[in-house]
Structures are given as C-alpha cells and as structure tokens.
Amino acid sequence: MTRWRVRLNDMTGNVLVETLAAAGFELDGDMLSGFDALDDWGDVSDAARELGQKVVEIARLNPDLEIGFTTGKVHEYGADGNQIGEHTKVYARTATSLKIEGQATLVENTSISPEEKGEIERQARASKAAELLRAAMASDDVLEVLRLFEGEPWGTELGHVHDLIRDDVSGDLSRFATKAQLTRFNHSINHQDALGLKARHATLKTDPPRDPMTLSQATAFIRDIAEKWIKEKAAP
Length: 236
Known about the structure:
This protein is an alpha+beta fold. It has eight helices and six strands, in the order E-H-E-E-H-E-E-E-H-H-H-H-H-H. Strands 1, 2, 3, 4, 5 and 6 form a six-stranded antiparallel sheet that branches. Strand 4 and strand 5 form a beta hairpin. The protein is elongated. The two termini are 23 Å apart.
C-alpha cells in the first residue's frame, strides 16, 4: 500500500512518465509515488525537491528536450488506502529543458511511418533521460562530470573528469580503457607541446608525448569513458 504521494504541478515533457518510472517512481496522473521507504512527510517533500533539482541540473547542462514539473502537497495515506493528511512545503519551479545526448538505433525501413519513427526516437530519448537521472541520483559526481563537459573543455576540465571517475572506481579504469590509452591521454592533456595553452600545465618539464592526442581526440576519449561510467551508475 502506498503511503506517500506528491502532487506535481505544471508538468511538461512527453517523456516525463517514462523517465520517472525508469528512475523508480510512478506517476499516476499528477500524483508521484515512490517514497514509501521514508517515514516523515518532510523527508518525502525534500526527496521530491531533490529529484526536481537533479532534473533541473541535467536539463541546464543539456538543453533540448522539455521536461519538468513543480512540486506540490505531500499526500499521506493509511493502511486502508484512505488519505489521512496533506502536508505542504513550497519550493521553486523545476520546469526546464533536458537535452538527451546519445544515438538512437533506428532501423532504416522505408515502410515505417513518420509517426512510428518519431515514437522510436521519443522512446530512445526517454531511455537516455532516465539513465542520466538514475545515475545523477546515485552520485553527485555524475552532475559534476556533466558540468565539466560544458562548452569546450580544455585539458584541465578533461583531467578533472578523468580524476572523478578514477576515484569513484577505486583507481581501476581498466574496464574502460587500456593502460597505454590512459597514459597517452594523460600525457597529452598535461603537456603544453600537445595542447598548447589549453593543456593542464603551461610549463611541464618532461618530454612531450610521442603520439599526442588532439584536444578533440582527448575529449572524445574521456567522454566515451564517462558515458560507460554513467551507464554503470545508472544500473539497478
């Protein structure tokens, strides 16, 4: 029996139901459930607010797909399913936009209708949105990594992404890349002879890498690792 439901207002986005469901919540009309592990209505309200904040931050970093809501009252239910109370905290609006990066796998089929193709793309975006949300709920480092990819990251930002992920996996990045690849990446982003003023260090007094990565290559390399890591964080 559901004990808590939070009313959502001003809902936007055509993948909101799927996104929240894949993150462990159930949206029935405008009522969101999934907080029954909590004992206090204030904690429920705070958890709903945190959920909204995660959506806001992911959306801010990836503007493209509209998805959002504002949180309303917390409804409390008894063992018989009847409502026994309503509780209110006021929080800022969380409606915003969310860009889902990643490629949808589309079958090239001339018989597929535009509506069917649109639905396939919508489901792919919903799946990616849910993955990002689950991962961000599992670790604040996920949001920090996304922030570091804002704009055009230079060697310092790429190095921070590497360090955050490395520390999260207890120093073992071997499942994401080989030691040689990681050494080449780190040597490239650190050395001024490889990335110039965009390197992590301006005057590193070591030999330059023999086969340096360009900035775009280094970005693609660490982004691939980040995407694999986020998938791990999003796993149930």
